[in-house]
Each structure stands twice: as C-alpha cells, then as structure tokens.
Structure of 2,5-diamino-6-ribosylamino-4(3H)-pyrimidinone 5'-phosphate reductase:
Amino acid sequence: MADPTPPTFLAATLLHHSTPPPATRPHVTLTFAQSLDAKIAGAQGRQLILSGKQSMVMTHWLRTLHDAILVGINTALNDDPQLNEPPHHLPRPVVVDARLRLPVTCKLLRNFQGKTGRRPWVLCAASLNSAFLERKSALEAAGARVIEIPLQSDEQPEGRLPVPSILHGLRERGVNSLMVEGGARIIASFLAESVVDALIVTVAPVLVGEAGVGYQYPTSLSENGDVLPKFKAIHTETLGQDTVMSFASIPW
Ligand SMILES: NC(=O)c1ccc[n+]([C@@H]2O[C@H](COP(=O)([O-])OP(=O)(O)OC[C@H]3O[C@@H](n4cnc5c(N)ncnc54)[C@H](OP(=O)(O)O)[C@@H]3O)[C@@H](O)[C@H]2O)c1
C-alpha cells in the first residue's frame, strides 16, 4: 500500500455510526466485489478477481481498520485467503465453519505458524462425533483456536451457526469491529439479520453470466417491505475501472 493513509471515504463510512458498538455485537462492515450482473464468483464458485488494483488496495486498507475479518468456510476452502496486510495492523482471521472442514494446511494456519498472520479463530457447532473431535484436535495442534457457538434453537438450518451468537461470541472475546468478506451465503445471512452497520460494495465493469454465484436475500423477508434492511448512501468513488459504493445502515 503506497499511500500512507486509508482513503478518506472509508473513515466517513465507518464513523457514520459514531456510537460505541452495542454490548451484544461488534460494529459490522460487510464488503464484497461484484460484477455488473451482481455475481461475486464464477460458475461452480470459481474464484474471480473482480477488483482492480486500486480497489484491492482500498480493501486492504479496510482490513487494517478492523479488529477481525470473517469469511465462510466455502470461501476459505475455495479461495484459501490470507486476510492480512503486513506490516500494518493484522486483523484476526475468523472462519465460520460449523463442521470443521478447514484444512490444517490452509494459508491462514501457515501464516500463523510463520508469524505473518494472527491465530485464526474457527467458529463451529458443538459435537461429540469422534471424526469431528479428531478434526478439532488437528486444527488446534496446527494453531487454530476453535470456538463453539451455541445454537439458538432446533430450527437453525443444519450447518448454519446463528449470526447473533457468532457476533456475541466475538464481542465477548474483545472484537469491537468486524469486517465480513463473504461468500454468498454469509452475505445473505448477515443481511437477513440486519446487523450490517456499513456496507461497501465494489462493482467491476464485467459481466459474469447466469452460471456465476450471486447472493440471495431470503424471499420470506423480502416479500415484506417493512423488514427490508435499509441503507443510506454515504459515498461513491471511482477507483481505476471500478465503482466503490459505501452505505450506512438506517436504524429501524
Ligand atoms: N467477490 C467477493 O468479494 C467474494 C468474497 C468472498 C467470497 N467470494 C466467493 O464466494 C464463494 C463462496 O460462497 P458460498 O456461499 O459458497 O460460501 P460461504 O458464504 O463462504 O460459506 C458458507 C458456508 O459457511 C457455513 N455457515 C455456517 N453458518 C453459516 C451461516 N449462518 N450463514 C451462512 N453460512 C454459514 C456453511 O458451511 P457448511 O456447508 O459446512 O455447513 C455454509 O455452507 C467462493 O466462490 C468465493 O470465491 C467472493
């Protein structure tokens, strides 16, 4: 990152809600890059580098402004991200991985072992299954901190950790600001819970086509206009070929 300070519009977006985070959760920034036809990945989830160089630098700055960065397990498996930006502040990597599918060879763990990244936290559901316990021991031996997230009810879809419990668990452990990077299911889950304080979307001038992966807002919520999450536009910036739009949530 050649520039010595982050782009000013990032601070304006993040500080829009200047109150301290609630006791039950961190401040949440949701950010992702999408094509003109609203796809965040290619067919079969193939990783697409949608952001150009300048908006990638903006995303790197955004990472340094948060205590932790969260991704879903499919993103961790598919993209094997590093989620850090040495030598700047290293945010805590967090993987939402109910069934502990994260491989011990992933870059997040290799970075931690090589002292170029912080210890990854892996959020899972409690289980006494012997194969699960073996995977848990292997991840812990490789350096991960495995954190069990309580399920709220039997109605929780299988493999889904409840977003409020995820956020509460992170806040309890000292995370005051969280950047959520995707993928599609995680984006949908966080939007559905109306816990997104700042939303930063990079739109790249490309079309991916209908086989690409987009995020879906749950139909049962969007049918009722009263409960749609609302955002206020804060800023639009052109970075190279990309358009970066930032929004802040509007209280209900
Ligand atoms: N363009 C971008 O900015 C961007 C950013 C990040 C990722 N991506 C792309 O997104 C794709 C992955 O997206 P994805 O939707 O397949 O996977 P994802 O959102 O990365 O991970 C979803 C998985 O996380 C687990 N999970 C546990 N609790 C959850 C909850 N409350 N809500 C949602 N998921 C929960 C589930 O795993 P189990 O199945 O084990 O239960 C679920 O299948 C990749 O292709 C990646 O390249 C794009």
Observations:
- The two ends are 37 Å apart (CA to CA).
- DSSP finds eight helices and nine strands in the chain.
- The chain has one domain: 25-42+60-249.
- The helical segments are 8-14, 53-64, 73-79, 107-113, 130-141, 163-172, 184-192, 219-222.
